[in-house]
Amino acid sequence: MSNLDRQAALSVCGGRGFVVAEPVRELLTPRHVRLGESTEVRRLLPNLGRRMVGAWAFVDHYGPDDIAGEPGMQVPPHPHMGLQTVSWLHDGEVLHRDSLGSLRTIRPRELGLMTSGRAISHSEESPRSHTRLLHGAQLWVALPDAHRHVEPHFQHHTDLPAVSAPGLTATLILGELDGTASPGTAYTPIVGADIALTAGAEARLPLEPDFEYAVLSMSGRADVDGVPVLPGSMLYLGCGRTELPLRADTDAGLMLLGGEPFEEEIVMWWNFIGRSQEEIEEARRGWMESSRFGEVKGYDGDRLPAPELPPVALKPRGRVR
């Protein structure tokens, strides 16, 4: 999915200087962003208070939207560099096309994982014949320097492993949790899990004390370490935890995001992650000149132009503003 903000700002993220090395409860409120003609997303990362959680560098939550009789999601071809995109649905379908020739329909609780590496382009759209509701999350994972120039590739996993406890099922999206591993390719120590809680459930989820974590609420009413987290908001938890108490008042859906704090500083602008402003400028030029990122075939519409770069020089700010 693209960052469609026409005033995209350059920012530096990463580094351990602002990682919270102890358990905290920091509630992050979303920024509302229009995505195409008919979809509005709630952007949790980057946030006014925090830019990354482990290697997770971008989190959008959208829906549930009633798209009966509507086109639904329509994101034109656009480029990516230096990151992985994670497509995750609770309702609906998303048709993925990319410059490698991939054509896949992603359905609820299936993993669509695109590794951009040095360069890729893709589009995402609701199929012409689609179900009534669209509800999901789109996330980016920053690639470490040693792997950010890998050959681009796309993975679609329809059968993911899960961890279960009374009243809780945690489906592994990426990385490892409680000895269970996702088949998706990861390049840093990381975890992403979709947590389904039944009404009245009380559970404790095992965590890695060296990881930092956040929990995104997708649906229902649940308390995370005693804090009520409403759908579309995210609770940052810091590091130093060995377990996470969860309690559900109703059936509820959560996403656990975590990982080893990302040590490198990165420059993120529009749909690119690099290491310098010059690298970002070169990527933008490559997209606008139709070089490097390939061609997405089959999408009915024009590709997405890049916004103008800001006139100000890059100012490093670390992991938090």
UniProtKB/TrEMBL annotation:
CDD domains: cupin_pirin_C (cd02247). Residues 193-290 form the Pirin C-terminal domain. Gene3D superfamilies: Jelly Rolls. It holds the Pfam family Pirin_C. It comes from the Bacteria. Residues 41-141 form the Pirin N-terminal domain. Residues 297-321 are annotated as: Disordered. PANTHER family: PIRIN, PIRIN-RELATED. Belongs to the pirin family. This is Pirin family protein. It comes from Streptomyces pulveraceus.
